[in-house]
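ERR on first pass: missing label on line 2. Operator R.T. fixed the label and resubmitted. Corrected input:
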Amino acid sequence: MGEELKVIVFGLGNEEYGIEVERVRTIERLSPITRVPKTAAFIKGVINLRGVVVPVLDLRGRFGLEETSPTEHSRIIVVAVGEIEVGFIVDAANDVIDIDTDNIDTPPEIVGGIKAKYLRGIAKLGEGRLLIMLNLSEVLNRNEIVQIEQLEV
Amino acid sequence: MDMNAYLSMFIDESNDHLQSLNENLLQLEGDPEDLSIVQSIFRSAHTLKGMSATMGFEDLAALTHEMENVLDLVRNSKLKMDSFIFDTLFKGLDALEAMVQDIIDGGTGKADVTAIVASLQTILKSDYKSGAASAAPAASPAGQAEGASALLDQFQSSILLQSMESGHEPYYVQVTLDETCVLKAARAYMVFDVLERTGEVVKSDPSVQDLEQEKFDRSFKVFTISTVTADSLQAQIANISEVASVEVTPLDPESLASLTAAPAAAAVEAPPKPAEAQEATPAEAAKKEAGEPAKRAAGGGQAAVGRTIRVDIDRLDTLMNLFSELLIDRVRLEQLASEVKRNDLTETVEHMSRVSSDLQNIVLKLRMVPVDSVFNRFPRMVRDLAKSLDKKIDLVITGADTELDRTVIDEIGDPLVHLLRNSVDHGIETTTKRLESGKPEMGTIRLSAYHSGNHVFIEVEEDGAGINQEKVLKTAIKNGVITEEESLKLNADEINMLIFAPGFSTADKISDISGRGVGLDVVKTKITSLGGNVTVHSEFGKGTKFSVQLPLTLSIISAMLIKLGSEKYAIPLTSIVETGIVKRSSMLNVHGNRMIKFRNSIIPVVSLSQVLESPDFDETAEEENEMIVIRKGDKWAAVIVDEFIGQSEIVLKTLGKYLTNVHAISGATILGDGQVALIIDPNALIK
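pass 2 clean. output:
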């Protein structure tokens, strides 16, 4: 038996993704977002999270997937990695589960169009249900974002 | 006892003592004869030693102890200060600072100080004998009191004798406390308070330290020089509750001799080392008017305790954050009230607004710190730099009590260090050069701070060589900072500003002090990032003046809120010159750039909607546009906006660590309706 890992599960397209619960600050309904000019397209802007200004990313856009307009199930998951605090727009977030680290496999090269380096692994949950574990430090890697910005500007 | 609870207090107080040691040593270096300074230094060192020993920082205590031994000889006129002793003491001080820093960083404060201790001990051993011999004539008036006992040493009785000669009243005071007295130390303190208010305490037995720590039985004896009569002094002391008896004996030379001789036998067991006792002994007491308050303040500041408290800065930050929340709600309430239009509501909201702006002032003032906390490290720095460059420099500091928000204070240290280093290294000439050009040998650097409006100005001015503009231009062209063609158009001040360009250095050779690639561009970047401005004025051959303009606080600013279609933005009021309306027909086209006439000059037009890629506003569709004229130094520009919302106090928030260096945006604020508005960086709009 490996260690137990508590994970927040959220949906993006047809896939289910997971983030360790310690990384998640809060899950919010969509609130008005203030656009920040001259930033990468997937950076939707900033929100007021109880007095703190927090940038919001569209996770679909971050992974190069097709962006969709938000629904009433859309949520903003605010995560913290080191000193960086960022909100992710996801299609839905509604589950907290425990998984055994033994059940996490290294990811194949590409999963649903997402590069392997953004992924920590794939967790098998039984009944054929798969959970894609995100590698947050890589998703929030500034260096890469700077490159993207330079390409777009 | 859990020492951690006292650690932060220890650190605060150690820093205070180290600072005062540093300042006093520098002062003493300028006036080595002033023994009253030695007294203050000794006192600081002594307290520091005691605190370190209590906290278990043995290395700190040991080094301070050695320094104290040297100082003790100096204060008893047995040793004359010379540059070797000063250098050694400064080295010791540096080591102490490093140790305290280590403790602050969570270390144990351990350090290898054997080299410094060895030099200190050399001073003690070698200079002691010759010093004692040379000091003998200095203590000549004490000659007759040769037989003075262990209770009063030569020096102290000479002070008493001298004070008699100059017509002051020395007294021998014996105080006995009630048997039932609970807080003996507190009573003793009150007695000293009376004595110090009416004069100078020369010597007490037991020592002040022992009295403070209640290491005495019921009575203590004090030699004092007072400005009041014996009766009055007796009455004042007797007035203190729980004092059983007090005996004030006026001293004349004979009674002094007998009094000092009589208790001598009893005091024999007292340690012969004079270092432990004689705390409140201002050495110059005899020469000076007794009871001079200013001098005493330097020695023991206990009287001021209780008027101020130390506050954890995190708590102040929290207070500030909570207050910002309140400010946001206030704006929201004001909006609601203006919509609801009910008199009683409007009145209440107006009252709340007034109260909260008063509150805002107080909260901001709480965070104000005198620039002194930054300035105080410069005298030492300039001294060391001047010494290593073999220059003679006098640093004159004015306005050190000017206050600035702590957030600004924390940031301005480094830029000022660069400016001062530049002044010492490039500004002030060598002694020979100064004499050749008919200047006094000693160069002067003036560091001054003052308030002006919503800003604080800090200036670094020296009477050195001035900026060689020809050389600056040559270097700038050589380094590709400007082209030869551009150089012809520059006026004197603009040429001076070139020294702030990245990678610029006119130093012929790279010295140890500046010109190590970290140039003045760092200074400019830093100050600009603080919302400030730096200018330089120079006259060749006469000197250079750097002038730094800084905002008072970084947390709350006045701003103009504007609209750009559906989006709202804030523009800091400090950079706005004027608002107005501009007709499309009055815009000129110069080389494809839009310009307008503004007060007899032609200034460029900046389209905010283009800079910010506004999704739903395009000013070209309109005949008339609102504009805001902004300035950056002496450059102006007209910024076209959609609509003015109005002026408002806004709370600055950062965009966080994820979004850094967003073009033309310096931060964000939260509006009354809870929405985030971005703050425009006007400096980015002007090229």
